[in-house]
Amino acid sequence: MILVPLVMGVQAVQARGGSQLDASGDRIGTPTESWTPNTPTTGVVVAPSSTTASTAPGTVVSLASFVGSSSMQASKWTSTVVITLLDQNNQPIAGATISGTWTAEGNNQTTTCTTDTNGNCTVTQWNLKMSGLGAHADNTYTLDSITGTNLTVGPSVTGTSITVLRPA
Predict the structure, then answer these.
(1) What is the CATH number of the domain that holds 89?
(2) In a domain, 112, yes or no
(3) H-type helices in the chain, by residue range?
(4) CA nearest neighbour of 59 among 144, 120, 146
(5) What is the pLDDT of residues 48-63, one digit of tens each?
(6) Would you state the pLDDT for residue 50?
(7) Residue-number span of the structural domain to which 75 is assigned
């Protein structure tokens, strides 16, 4: 099956006045092509670049840490969580998108953020009631997903949560 297009391609080249091939497949009447490596004076041979794609291992999210805090704002409060992502070498992961869900007294809200160069991103939920009907005694943030280029999420990273208590 592969030989038919190859033969047709050679015939097309020959019909346009291109070089001809003998029975062994060598060109007739054209100079021989050769490749000479670039040999610098240091003795290092530089070969032409390969067209094979590299399959470098991806970054593995091995740690997601949470630091929660709360603050007052008039008669309401704010819940904040700073999330830090580190790779398998304890290096910060920049540019990862984190999605998570806030749960405060049965009310759910999904928020996302993108990690900075230090691997940090901050999610905040404002205007939580301090007292009365619908007051929030605490607010829990659960990490639902982490996405990014060439990123693999390690075990036990997603599904992790932190509960932030309202200020006293």
Answers:
(1) 2.60.40.1930
(2) yes
(3) 3-15
(4) 146
(5) 333 333 334 578 998 7
(6) 33
(7) 60-165
By three-state DSSP, how is residue 13 classified? helix
Q: What is the pTM of this model?
A: 0.64
Q: Which tokens belong to 158?
A: 């997603």
What is the number of domains present in the chain? Answer: 1
87's tokens: 């790779």
CA count, 13 A, side-chain hemisphere, 119: 16
Take residue 55 and report the two structure tokens written for it.
């399959």
Q: Which residues contact 165 (CB under 8 A, 6 or more apart)?
A: 70, 137, 138
Domain presence at residue 45: no
When pLDDT is cut at 50, 70 and 90, the band that residue 25 belongs to is low
Q: Look at residue 35 and tell me if it is in a domain.
A: no
Q: What does the pLDDT read at residue 16? A: 44
User: 82 near 118, Cβ under 8 Å?
Assistant: no
